[in-house]
Specification:
Length: 351
């Protein structure tokens, strides 16, 4: 049908334009953040664009429902303001027809979001974990820079390397300053290398042929010690986060008895389901008069969307903490929205 193709073209064009704008804003913010981390030596430059691309897959799961919701609202709002919808109603095509046609498009978009939510987003999270491991492995060499002071131990220590040979990971003329056990400790050594403990992944600088100076706080007394070999702890591997379900595949989540796995699985279902609920809501909200303007309900739509998404996230946390049963989980949020959409539709039909 000509009207259907025209309507779909309007919605898809608007949605793509909105998605492009929001993605560019997100990428610029993330890129600046990653560059700052690279500048401080926390992230090698070669990983910046890889992480941006992988994080974008997760962002699409959130942004596509939002942009599709707003695109329907804006497109229909324009058609109302230009009386094109009024002409359609005069031909006997009412709100049920409009909801049906847009719901067909919503099903196609929901399938795309479902692929992202169930397959591509978990894959990207697993790839990000692999990249983080590679960054940790390369941090022994690539994050060390000669001629620059580098902090460790949450800023309570600093070390300086005059010469650094990346081929054999050896350092020359090393200076270390730190606070430990109520003392200021200053260490200088002719040479050193970085050592990683296999069991804990803790990192040490092992220094050779140097001097250590200990000064107690509030005292002028200093202890000088000459050593042939001395190790200084500069990094302790943080404990893994308890929630590692984002990177797991759907079968493992389904077979798991943990509440966190069920919460993650329900949130993956929520992404495509939200499109099927938001699409008819946008149709019902799009009704405007010429005086209202085509964008009069954008702020209300954004408010509804963010309340909906935040309540979903709260319900996910409640499910993880065993406050909500699995059968209720996040489904009650979709149920409330669905009842609201159905009620609004029935009221509109009675008018």
């Amino acid at each position: 049908m000509i009207f259907s193709r025209y309507l779909y073209r309007e919605i898809i064009t608007t949605a793509l334009a909105l998605l492009l704008i929001i993605v560019l804003i997100y990428l610029s913010q993330r890129f600046i953040q990653f560059l700052a981390e690279a500048g401080t030596g926390q992230l090698p430059l070669e990983f910046v664009f890889k992480l941006l691309a992988l994080k974008l897959l997760w962002v699409f799961v959130i942004l596509i429902p939002l942009t599709f919701f707003l695109a329907i609202l804006m497109s229909l709002g324009r058609l109302y303001s230009e009386n094109e919808i009024i002409a359609m109603f005069a031909c006997g095509l009412g709100t049920p027809f409009l909801v049906q046609k847009i719901q067909h498009l919503a099903i196609a978009i929901a399938i795309i979001v479902g692929v992202l939510s169930f397959i591509l987003a978990p894959w990207s999270e697993a790839k990000q974990e692999q990249l983080r491991q590679e960054i940790k492995q390369q941090s022994d060499i690539s994050l060390l820079t000669a001629g620059r002071f580098q902090s460790f131990n949450q800023g309570r220590g600093v070390f300086y390397i005059e010469h650094f040979d990346k081929t054999n990971a050896s350092m020359k003329n090393v200076f270390v300053s730190l606070e430990r056990d109520g003392k200021n400790i200053v260490i200088s050594a002719d040479r050193a290398y970085l050592k990683t403990e296999e069991q804990t992944n803790a990192k040490y600088i092992v220094l050779f042929d140097g001097f250590r100076y200990d000064v107690k706080h509030g005292s002028v007394e200093m202890t000088e010690t000459k050593f042939s070999q001395h190790a200084v702890l500069i990094y302790i591997e943080p404990q893994p986060l308890p929630n590692a379900f984002k990177s797991q595949n759907n079968v493992d989540l389904w077979n798991s008895n943990q509440k966190g796995a069920m919460a993650e699985l329900q949130m993956r279902f929520s992404a495509p389901l939200s499109i099927l609920l938001l699409a008819p809501l946008a149709v019902l909200m799009s009704h405007t008069t010429p005086r209202q303007g085509r964008y009069s309900k954008i702020l209300i739509a954004l408010l509804i969307y963010f309340i909906y998404v935040n309540v979903l996230e709260i319900s996910q946390k409640w499910l993880e903490r065993d406050i909500l049963p699995v059968w209720l989980g996040v489904w009650w949020v979709h149920g409330v929205l669905g009842i609201g959409v159905l009620t609004t539709f029935l009221k509109r039909e009675k008018c």
